[in-house]
Structure formats: C-alpha cells, structure tokens
Amino acid sequence: MVVEPIVRDAVVFASLLSLLSIGLTLTYLTTKVPNFSHGSLATIGVFTVLTTTELWRQNPYISVPLAFVLSGMASLFLYLAALRPLISRGAGLPLQMVATLAYELILLAVLNIYADFLTRVFKITSRDFLLRKYDLKILDEPGVFIISPLLVIFLVSSLYLLLTRTKFGVAMRAAIENAPLAGVIGINVRTVYMFSWFLAGGLAGVAGAMMGLWFQADPGFGSRMLVSIFSASIVGGLQNIYGGAVGGYIVGLAEILGTSQLASVFGVQILPYRPLIPLSAMIITLLLFPKGFSGMDWGRIIRLRLQGAKL
Amino acid sequence: MILELVYIFTVDLLALLAVYLIINISLNLEYGLTGLPNFGKVLAVAGGAFVAGSVPGRLMAEYFGLYRGIEAYANNSVLADCMRGLSLQKPKILEATEFIEDNVLIITCINRVLSFDPFLSVLILLLTLFVAAGVGAALGFISSYPAIRLREDYLAMTLLAMGEFMWTIGYYTRDLVGGTLGVSVIDPYGWTGVRERFLVATFVLVGVAVLAFVYSRILARSPLARILKAVRDQEIAAEVLGKDTVKVRRNILMISASLASLAGALWAFYSGGVIAVGYDRITWTFWPWVMVIVGGSGSNLGVLLGTTIFVTARKFIDYYKFALEPVLPFSVVWLDRLVLGLVLLTILLLRPAGVVPEKPTLTLSREKIAELIKKQESSGTG
Q1: Shortest alpha-carbon distance between residue B237 and chain A (Å)
Q2: Contact map slice: B 135-174 vs A, CB within 8 A
Q3: What distance in Å separates the CA atoms of residue B133 and residue B44, rounded to the nearest whole number?
Q4: Which of A132, B14, B163, B237 is the most exposed place for a label (fewest CB within 10 A)?
Q5: What is the ipTM of this complex?
Q6: Residue B318 CB neighbours (<10 A)
C-alpha cells in the first residue's frame, strides 16, 4: 500500500492538533480563559524530542512521557503562579488573557534561549530542524504516522474512562459544571483545576514531541499554530472536551488536504495561504453555529432530515 | 561623535515612542474605555503600513510614467538622469519597469525627484495618510462584525486570528508589499535634507501622537467616555438608558483602527521600508498590551507613562546588546522578552490596575445637584 505524502502530513497534523485542542478546551472549561501560550507549551515538547535525539542520542519516543511531564509542569505553573491569584482577586477575563500572553512571551524567550544554548554550546541545529530520520518504521510507514492517530484514540478513551468511571473524574466533571456547588459537597475544586491545567499542558507536550518528529520546527513553531488550535477548539465546540478532538480532525484535515485540493484547482500559488483555512473555519463556525460541532443537537438534525425524506 | 550618537539615539527613541503612543491610545480607547479586548491590534497597524508600502510608490510611478520606459519621462531631467544612471545595473529598466521587481530602483529615482519637490512630497504624504486612515476604518468596521456579536473570550481569539490574516496576506502576496523581500517606501521628507529627514519624520510622528493624546484626554472627560465606560461595565444599564451599544462599539473600533493605521503608515514613512514579517503579533499586538496594562488601562496618563517606560527600557536594552552579547550564551533579543514578560506578570499580580490606575469619574455632589434643581425649578416657575 502506498500512502501519499500529503495524506501522511494531514493525518499526523490533524491527530496532534486534536490533542492540542483537547487541552485548550479543558483549560477553557475549567477557568474560562483562552490560553494564549498553549502553542508554546507544545514547543516545549518539540525541544524535548530535539534534546533526546540530537543531544542524548536516545530513542525519540522516550521524549513523549518526558514532554508530558515538562509541558504539564509549565502549564501548571502558569495556573498556580498567575491565573489562580488573579482569579481569586476577582480580576476580569481580559487581565487573565493578558497573563497568559505574558507567559507566552516568557516561554518564547526561554525556548529561544535554550535553542541558542544548544547551538552555541553543543553545535546542534536548533532552528528549522527536521528529525524524521530518528523515527521508527512500522509496516514500512513512518512511526509517527501510525502512532499519532492511535495515541489520540488511546488518550481520548483514557480521558473518557477517567471522567466517567473514576471518582476523581466524576468530581472533575462536577467542578467543571458548577464549581461552587461542587465545593459545597466537598470536592476540592482547586485540585481539580490544577489537574486539568497539568493534563492540558501534558497533552500539548505530547503533541509537540510527535510534531517535532515529523514537521520542520523552530522555537516559534507552536506559537504559529495558535490560530489553528483556537480554530479547532471553536469548530469542535468549546463546551465539550471531545469537541476538541473532533475539531482538531476537521480543521487539521481541512487545512492540509483542503489546501492541496485548492492548489490542484487554482494552482500552486494558493499553497501559502494555508493559514486562512483555519481562520475561515473559525469565522464560519462562529457565525453559523457558534456552539461548534459538539454543541449542535445532532439528534434533532437527523430527525428533521428523516422527516424531510419521508415528505 | 558622541553628540551625533546621542542625536540619533534620541530621534529614534522619540519616533518609536510616538508610534507606540498612538497605537496604545487607540488600544486604550478600545480596551481601557470600552472593554473590547482587541488582541488583533496588528491588523490595523499592518493595514496602514501596507498602504504606505504599496499605494504612494505606485501612484508616483504611474504619475511620472516610470512603467512605460524612458520616452515617457525624458523631459523630466532629474528622473531621466537617475534612471539612466541606475540602468548600468539593470539595462532593462529603461524600456519598462515593474513595481515590485524594480522596486528599489524606482523608489530611489522617485525619492530623487521628490527631494526637489516639497509640494508634491507633502501632498503625497497627506494623501497616503488619508487613505491609510480610511483603510484602517474599513478594517475596524470588519473587526466590529465579530465584536458586536461575541463574548470577550471568543472575540479575543477571533481578533487574534484576524491579525494573523493580514500578516499572511502581506507575506505571501508578492504584489502587495513585495512578500518575503519587502518594499521600499517613498520618502516624503527627503526635501528637508538627508540628515534632517529623520528629525522631520519624528516631528510629524510626535505631532500626530500629541494630537491623539490631546484628543484622548478631551474624550476621557466627555459624556461620550461615560457611555463607553457604561458599555464596558454595565452593558444592560447602558441599553436601558437608550444607548445603542452596538453602534458605540463599532464606532470606537473604527476610530481606533484608523488611528492605529495612521501610526503604521507614519512608521513606514519614517523607516523607509515595509516588510510583512515585521508586522507580527508580538511587536504590534503584545507590546502595546504590555504597555497599556503596565501603565494603567483606562487612564491616559498611565498609557503615556507605560509607553515611555517600556519603549525607553527596550531601546536601552537594544542599545547595550552589543556589550552583553559576548557575555551571554544566547541572543539578547530574548532577554528583553523574558524580562518584560516577567515585569508584566509581576505588575498584573501586584498592581492589576497599572502604575497609574484609572480614576473614577466624579459626579456632582448632592448639594450641588439640589442647588441646580432648585435653580431650574425657580426659573421654570418664574
């Protein structure tokens, strides 16, 4: 079986975009603030995989759990050091967004400093690097291509099991639905929020580590993906965690396959306008069905369709 | 030598201060007074800069007939000599030219002509600023479309994405501002002299900034500002009082976007070039936010102070980076972001209202109102 390179790109990108937008949706559900530094949390993962392969000469997949922990910690730090104090003082939403923006500046600076450090001290290319050569081969296909969709399935089903089958998960859902009420019945809302932020960052880190194995990357990699992440979360629906997964696939596939389709119709000069696809997806969603994919009443739509068919 | 350096440093600092002051005032109008979190400030700034990069140069080239070969402008000796001189590098330009392809050559010769023609220079400057302000207003109108429909969080994400949109178009559309290579901008200050042009350009920027500041101060004390603050703090109350909040939001976005576009165009004229990569969200969205929040949103004095502190600090870091560069194992550019990001977080946590917090709008005292009512009643009955 021969898989077209563009399909590989699309599957890897869409799967990892799903992980990123699940994370963004999770933090949005808990604290109601869109995290402007979410993209750069993924870049931490990218640099973890660069370090494990180029510097330590290890299997790249070691970096996946490592990136989970590192990005998770970075995300938790943002929540604990900036957002929680701001929220407890009753600061408005714009100030919280500015705090995530300040964190984005700091993360970008730290990542760039680390990149410079790698280059100057260890002579490792840390800008526009490509790490595909370190990837495994599974069934003659690159490992990332096989592993990333499986990883999404695994992580989404674990998340589902966590949220529905464990006591902590049920407490988490309660805290997301109604924080004061959850607090009244003895759920530690703060712990739940801390866990959510850690998990969101961790998922971003995992996505970043996998992306680093496939795409050409640099310290601004995640930051540039921010619009795609927002778009995927909005298209999927910011009110539902699984919406992020769906939105990631819709926007990711549209972004890569859509651009190549358009290029085959209108010519290659259209290729660079790829960033306009997530933007348009986002605007169309907001204007036509602002609750996103998961917020739509699918049962009603299907019923209406069936009734229409009968008539 | 030292004096010369101080002179260049000061002029550059003032220009940067002025351009950021205009942008920050416009952000303060949107966020500080009306409560619209515009995370796509770069949209309008880039719009203005792209107008300056693409409109006046083309207009002048068309006006002089530069596209049609040497015969079209043979009677204009300055232009013909200039083009003949440059044709040594590229003989083809005497037959026909293309704006982006031969950009540097065309702009060099236009600048030569403009340096002898103050009237035309001022005219094209004013015309461009007018167009830039118009384009800005149009961009503001477009961004008001989501702004009157969406909540703060969704709005912030949408506007951020729209800001990226402008950058992408500029970067990949070669015909707009030269894509990856950028374009030169014509110099409407050239007639004042090679050295003096920076001074004059700065003077113009500072003049516009002072006007914007005065406007913003007058506005802050006007009844309009109370409407804006009502829209920000209690939208329902504002609607109950019969204020059209949709219209208010749209108008504020249009006014502030055209201000920001003006700043973008003036900056392009000052620096003499436009390149799309220069219009990223860090430089023209995040930095203005940092300055407004640190200074104190909603307060004009705060915005002025925040801008001054930040631009000066960054300029000094920039100036001393050659001294720091060999000591550090990384580029100093990142140090500046790290430090300023940390400063912003600290300010947010310690003084969330900024260095100079917004003052509450004072109303008349009870006695004064009673007195006024009495006066009115007596004049009504009498």
Answers
A1: 19
A2: 146, 149-150, 152-154, 156-158, 160-162, 164-165, 168-169, 171-172
A3: 9
A4: B237
A5: 0.87
A6: 15
